[in-house]
Amino acid sequence: LEEFDQKTFVVYLSGELIEVKNSRVIEDLALLQKVGIRIILVHGAELQIRNHYTSQGLDYHTEDGIFAADEKNISLIEQAVSSTNWKLLSRLRRCARQLQAFTGHFLLAEKKKFSDIYDSHFTGNVCDIDLETLRQAVSDSKLAIIPPFSLGEKGRLWMLEPIQVAFEVATRLRAKKLIMLDTFPLPNFDNTDSSEITSDSISKWLENEPDLPSAQKIQLSSLTEACVRGVERCHLLDGSVEGAL
User: Fold this and answer.
1) Of 14, 27, 29, nearest to 177 (Cα)?
2) Which of 75, 94, 135, 143: disulfide with 101, CB 3.0–4.6 Å?
3) What is the mean pLDDT of the chain?
4) Which residues contact 80 (CB under 8 A, 6 or more apart)?
């Protein structure tokens, strides 16, 4: 692990993975932090938001795989994200009491452009990041947890695509690695068993996979672009598999 001592890893953790019982991935993240790797953790909450919507009999809308947060249900969405954030923070503290994990608003957002059908929404794009606070936190051996929402102008709350958040943080911080942890099986690229593939090969493969689920397409495109923008190494892992990380 000497190669990665004091290096920054930005890790995306899906909302689905947070709910997987008996998963050791959070304990593994805490261990990496303990041995000197600087972890910035971005978590999703899509499953939790869907469950809140279902319990209220509400329709869950997406465009190109991105959740369109409707204004009238913003408090319900905020509740789902906040409870997920607290659950993750609590699990990290339970598995490593000496771990200094903290969360907060490190991002500035602006409204995302959707089609006219979803014009009245509260989904945003990352437009700025408090990089200095994040750098200071990781240099002090703290684990920063970034939720998929942020403030914008006049204090308005915007919901964010967590994969985009992880991408923006990793590229702007020039992280050593960007790691995405989810629960679905990994794609089989070109019918090979190789665990490595170049960004150029991924781009060409995506062009020939029009039916790929939107979530995977967003993840693979973000990982590819992160490599192009200077992140040394990117990983897509099934976090439900024991020891994957």
Assistant:
1) 29
2) 143
3) 89
4) 45, 48, 49, 51, 52
